[in-house]
Design brief:
The protein has 221 residues and is mainly α. 60% of the residues lie in helices and 0% in strands. Bound molecules: adenosine-5'-diphosphate and nickel (II) ion. It holds the Pfam family HD.
């Protein structure tokens, strides 16, 4: 099988697995990350097959909610790629991407070790910010039954992945705990550049949200 066929088969496989996922890790997220990754990869010296497979498989553990099992993603990806007779070095490079892309809290450095993983991490982070990022954050919060906002409840900068993951805070806090921090953590110049506009749009959104919320606090007649 050539690499184009391997990418096409993987896209079809992942699309089937993720069909109907409502938690923010749906097929459309994967598809946008794939497209973003290709856009960034054009400007970088990287293996585009590895980048595309990494983008397509980066959230593979989430279709079944294997939470807390960090090796689940690489394991499921490896099984799939072996079923497609992919060569071992390619499989290992893709698995390394899956291990390295995830945001683990404000205080945790997660700079990837390979140029391909840097591209996929940037592509995934672009999809967490801007208008899409706002939509995903509220979809995730709704899925978990969280409040949108709670006046007086301060955002927390989490020092570990465990702390970050068990956080139950209102969705607006997530902007301060993760989304606003991402713009300074892009690996590639293209990612960094695309992040600017999306970041500014989120800032404007939060500003408007808070002014509408607090503007409602008029004294009773
Ligand atoms: P990823 O590594 O793909 O960003 P996550 O599971 O951390 O995966 O996040 C999936 C989506 O849900 C992202 O858009 C993220 O910003 C959003 N999200 C994650 N945690 C929260 C939260 N506590 N509140 C609101 N949105 C969240
Ligand atoms: Ni993702």
């Amino acid at each position: 099988m050539n690499s184009e066929e391997l990418v096409a088969n993987t896209a079809q496989h992942v699309e089937r697995l993720f069909a109907g996922e409502g938690s923010g890790h749906d097929w459309w997220h994967i598809r946008r990350v794939w497209q973003n990754a290709l856009l960034i990869a054009r400007q970088e010296k990287v293996d585009t097959t590895v980048v595309q497979l990494g983008a397509l498989l980066h959230d593979i553990a989430d279709w079944k909610f294997h939470h807390g099992d960090e090796e689940a993603g690489p394991r499921v990806a490896r099984e799939w790629l072996l079923s497609q007779s992919a060569p071992e070095p390619l499989i290992e490079n893709v698995c390394q991407i899956i291990r390295e892309v995830t945001f683990k809290g404000a205080g945790v450095d997660t700079t990837p070790s390979t140029p391909e993983a840097k591209v996929v991490q940037d592509a995934d982070r672009l999809d967490a910010i801007g208008a899409i990022g706002i939509g995903r954050a509220f979809a995730y919060g709704g899925h978990k039954g969280r409040e949108m906002y709670h006046p007086g409840q301060e955002p927390q900068l989490h020092a570990s992945f465990e702390e970050y993951k068990k956080n139950q805070a209102p969705t607006l806090n997530h902007f301060y705990e993760k989304l606003f921090l991402l713009k300074d953590r892009f690996n590639t110049a293209t990612g960094q550049q695309l992040a600017q506009e999306r970041h500014a749009y989120m800032q404007q959104f939060v500003h408007q949200f808070l002014s509408e919320w607090h503007g409602e606090e008029v004294p009773p007649a």
